[in-house]
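Fig. S4 source data, part A: sequence.
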Amino acid sequence: MKIAIISDVHANFAALEHFPEKDCDHLWCLGDLVDYGPRPHQVIEWVRRRATVVVRGNHDHAVGFDVDPQCSLPYKHLASETMRYTREVCTKDDIEFLRNLPAQNELMIGTKTFYLVHAAPTDPLFGYRREDSELWTNEVQWINADVLVVGHTHTPFIRQIGGCTILNPGSIGQPKTGRPLACYAVWEDGKISLKEYEYPLKKAIREIWRMPLAKQDIDELVAVLESGGRFIPAGHVAVPLRA
């Protein structure tokens, strides 16, 4: 049994259409299909055709219900501007699809129980938990699963707490690893692998340039992609992230 796991596509169809896993038995998506990127409609269509399980992310929720995605301060402006664009180019059916996605999903593969959520079990849409967060201890106690599968932070990791494995595949569309490579994970017969791949970044950038946004917003979106998340927007002033 081979399961490919993706998250945080953020309308980066150039990355998604070059997804390398063609022979997986299942494809799971942990949400945030939309915002920031130029082609939300195409991403939604791709995920609807191929994914066997999809949960709702905070940006999916925001677009579906026309509410604040509650991003961190540096990204609030870009989230607001690209959400307006996203709602303009998505169809009513797209928005209905995002609105109706479940906030979490629990399923069994063989003898293993998986709990899928975008952010965290206690706060499915907005709970921001870094790999080293002490809050994970409470999160795994709150559920009854062998594997907790999460996204939201755009950074891949595998962490073991007691009998529960926490897996974050990172981000397909806006990775924050310091490398401009799309990230995902594979679970195959009990073994978990974190993977990344090159995609036509220049194509993604050209598509961002065509978005009807202010030049500074476009420059910041491009900088985030090119730097692999090391470049963080700060309102209308972009600054480098220091390690």
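Fig. S4 source data, part B ends here. The helical segments are 13-16, 40-50, 58-65, 76-89, 92-99, 136-142, 201-209, 215-226.
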